[in-house]
Amino acid sequence: MSTGITKEEAQSFGKVGVLFGGRSAEREVSIMSGTGVLEALRSQGIDAHPFDPGQRSLAELAAEKFDRVFIALHGRYGEDGTLQGALELLGIPYTGSGVMASSVAMDKITTKILWLKAGLPTPEFAVLDDASDLPAVAARLGLPLIVKPPHEGSSIGFSKVDAVDQFGAAYAKCAPLDDSVLAESFVSGREFTVAVLGTGAGARALPVVEIVAPKGNYDYQNKYFTDDVQYFCPPQLDEAIQAEMRRIAVEAYRTLGCEGWARVDVLLRDSDNRPFLLEANTSPGMTSHSLVPMAARAEGMSYEALCVEILRSARLKIKG
């Protein structure tokens, strides 16, 4: 595992804000992520301070005079470009992707459109509203289908639809969370994730992690609050397939314009071992159950070293 950083480097970061909590449905997870990041940075001698945008104003954020911030927020108002825009206006360098990439990656529909345009594999989809012809959608995409809100994470609002008469309940579950609803072809296969660090030509994938959940149910509870999910890094999988997963993950990351770090979720279809991209998370979890730290450990990078590497990448993205 990596050892620490020098006192000089720790001081060079200046006053660092760790932003966590927020107002999204993932607030609880964000608090766990941010607390871990805060402790890790402090353990390296970095002058790090907590800041919760869900409880404090942007005026207070400006008054803190942070030299840079580590974004450990998940979901809306933290991962979707809104906070990134505020930080650009305030002139505070920040970790992760900029305004456009954050907002695009947060919208699973736009993400899929861009990936398909780039020739990257992702399951077929339809956008649902109150007037949608659900039998026609089922006929075109086939059953079962995955139904989910396109702007939420952590499997919030997620349903698997096995018959047309289940659409109503699935849609009702999503409707309070989003103006539109995403229906996606179900891919039967193994679930993986690939963390990506860096920017542009320098972006690189960390080792692949396989996720094996009870009865295939990798939901919010199993992700963060139980020990029932098994993780394998590296997985029992041909290296050529892993290399292809890493390749398309990096291409997916670059296509969206991501930088700093992100996590790309991938399904490997049982029938032909073909990988399909599901979504990109531009501010992934950093809890004890989280997958980016797990992949970093497999490469010999400690949690603390990972947090420092991400912090090093903090910058303003808009030139002016």
> What name goes with the CATH superfamily of the largest domain?
ATP-grasp fold, B domain
Largest sheet properties: 6 strands, antiparallel
Tell me the number of helical segments per DSSP (H or I, 4 or more residues long): 12
Cα shape = globular
CATH topology of the largest domain: D-amino Acid Aminotransferase, Chain A, domain 1
Rg computed from alpha carbons, rounded to a whole number of angstroms: 19 Å
| Distance, first to last CA | 39 Å
Low-confidence stretches: none
Topology pattern, helix = H, strand = E: HEHEHEHHHEHEEHEEEEHEHEEHH
How much helicity do the residues have? 25-40%
**Multimeric organization:** single chain
* Top-tier CATH class of the largest domain: Alpha Beta
Mean pLDDT: 92
Q: What brief labels describe this structure?
A:
Dna Ligase, domain 1, Rossmann fold, four-stranded antiparallel sheet, D-amino Acid Aminotransferase, Chain A, domain 1, six-stranded antiparallel sheet, alpha+beta
Description:
The structure is a single chain. The chain has 320 residues and is an alpha+beta fold. Helices cover 35% and strands 21% of the residues. It has helices at 7-12, 27-43, 58-63, 82-90, 99-106, 108-117, 134-141, 167-174, 220-224, 239-256, 291-298, 303-312, and strands at 15-19, 47-51, 68-71, 125-128, 145-148, 159-161, 181-185, 189-199, 204-205, 209-212, 230-232, 259-269, 275-281. Strands 8, 9, 10, 11, 12 and 13 form a six-stranded antiparallel sheet that branches. Strand 1 (15-19), helix 2 (27-43) and strand 2 form a beta-alpha-beta unit. The model has no long low-confidence stretch (mean pLDDT 92).
